[in-house]
Fold:
Amino acid sequence: MSQDPELREPDLPRTAKVRQKALRTGWTTGTCASAAAKAAATALDVGEMQDTVEVGLPGGQRVRFEVDECTLIPGQEAEAVVVKDAGDDPDVTHGARLTATVRWRGEPGIELDGGVGVGVVTKPGLGLELGGPAINPVPRAMITQAVGEAIDLSKNGITVIISVPDGERMARKTTNARLGIIGGISILGTTGIVRPFSTASWRASVEQAISVLAAQGEDTVVLCTGGRTEKGAMKLFPHLPEVCFVEVGDFTGAALRRAVQHQLGHVVFAGMAGKLTKLAAGVLMTHYTRSKVDLALLEDITRAVGGPPDLAEQIGNANTARHAAELWDQAGLLPEAGRELCARAARVLSRFSAEIAGQENQPPQIHVIMVDFTGQRKIAEAPA
Structure:
């Protein structure tokens, strides 16, 4: 078997293509915040509480929302609530009550701030002002546009405070704290629409996490395939700050691109047998719908480390990479075979990084670690 497999990074399919029933899209926190802000601004301007509100998305689409709650102190303050519907996306902010409180201000234009449940930015690398609310640029523009449809911002001034009751609790299920966003969720969105399973969002969060650690002067990123692996990796590298550990999921290729872009010096990949087998076969996007475990590669590794022919044949017919690893373990070959698997995966990651870096940039040094299926115990690594 070739030691230098073709490098492949297949795209994820649209979820609707891999499911019999198309999944329902939803709306981002940014879209819902803009709708709440317009409803509140309209109520304050016309002196009447609002039941529905229409806003524009960045792509030009217009969407109408129900206003779940609207209160008004005529001439002083108005507040409106739009409840986030994330569609069929398993989003921790599904059902969040995006709340906008608006008041007149003396100077023309809009002043935007975050209230309870909206995070505060405390670390660089996010493209947002330190100490300010975690309201990303596109949602800021959407809120400004929506409020500008309700009142003339060239002549009138308005303060808009976006809050999310229970946002602090929701944020505990996100990576916000690690990114330096404290006290609540982020107001997010680039298109205004939530795509099912947020695969694009996960990829973006991986890239953002690497940008954040680079902005803090860190030179090493530890890419982990999941939560258990990440906990184990933190024990292996106790000297590294938490920001250096990134749960990469299936987006190894995207992570390496960002690491090269920021000229990081070291990339560590920690994973179990299945993901490492896919990487060793040259597959940089390892989602199960786009790649399968190459058992022939594991059979070849068995022969390469001196395994007997009958074991190699068993490995080639194994049910899964985990099954193959168990067979190696039973034969006393797990350390040697694990090292060879790590070495092959490291060669692929090094080649991929070098191709991205080209002649102008220095690719990072690559280190690959194989962990057991608890994610807590190191089995092998390369380079050793």
